[in-house]
Amino acid sequence: MAEQKKEEKADDKPVNLRLGDTAPNFDADTTEGALNFYKYLDDKWGVLFSHPADFTPVCTTELGMVEKLQDEFTKRNTKTIGLSCDSVESHNKWIKDIIETQGIKDKDKLSYPLIGDNDRKIAKLYGMLPASDDKDKLPLTVRSVYIVNPDKKIKLILTYPASTGRNFDEILRVIDSLQLTAYHKVATPANWKDGDKCVIVPSVNNEDAKKIFTQGIEEVKPYLRLTPQPNKK
């Protein structure tokens, strides 16, 4: 199991999270019962993604898509967890609609938990709330995505407007790229897709590169060295 880093607990102050920060830990009520974020992830990669509210059209399609892609996340040793600023009771009612409308077969619940964050504590902790001039009304979360590695470090942060559904194929592509860098010492170029050539990271010198990348190296420039995707034979 990956070493669990010193954790931060939710409070009333928003946090300006950045790539490389330790993902704040939290305890939450979810559709799968009470859980601790770190314990839920264990030694896996994680995707935490938020929604403005229950029973909203774009969110309904997103949660359905994440359910359909569970096998893909599992292949990548990745667990998903959603968040919305409504109650768990409301979530459970909404899930029935998600299953009914999104073509999910032979299931009566989602395969991953959905956090109830009525008081916005987790939303504040992760900076999921938009700027608002209405001080008398609780704001709704924006569409945020956080990818967390097994060391509980934040590796990606995405924020979408409420009107734009997320591209989960892109999120899977980013996980593939992050894992290639973590485990195979390569980066991925613009518009990279699974199976395309990768870029050897600058920290690997030419002598070591020849030993590591036995499928071959294409040196375009001394700083731009390409190699076939290492985990594809």
Structure characterization notes:
- The chain has 233 residues and is an alpha+beta fold.
- Helices cover 28% and strands 22% of the residues.
- It is built from seven helices and eleven strands.
- The strands form two sheets. A seven-stranded mixed β-sheet has the order 2-1-5-4-3-6-7.
- Helix 4 links the parallel strand 4 (78-84) and strand 5 (114-116).
- Helix 2 crosses helix 4 (88-101).
- The longest helix has 17 residues, at 168-184.
- The protein is elongated and about 60 Å long.
- The chain starts with 26 loop residues before the first strand and ends in a 6-residue tail after the last strand.
- Residues 1-6 and 8-12 have low confidence and may be disordered.
Concise summary:
This protein is an alpha+beta fold.
Structure keywords:
233 residues, alpha+beta, seven-stranded mixed β-sheet, 11 strands, elongated, disordered N terminus
Strand count = 11
Poorly predicted segments: 1-6, 8-12
Q: How many individual helices?
A: 7
Cα-based radius of gyration, to the nearest Å: 20 Å
Main beta-sheet strand count, sense and barrel state: 7 strands, mixed
**Protein structure class:** alpha+beta
Oligomeric form of this entry?
Answer: single chain
Mean pLDDT: 90
Give the H and E element order: EEHEHHEHEHEEHEEHEE
Q: N-to-C terminal Cα separation, in Å?
A: 29 Å
Shape, per Cα inertia axes: elongated
Strand portion, in percent?
15-25%
Order of strands in the sheet with the most strands?
Answer: 2-1-5-4-3-6-7
Helix content: 25-40%
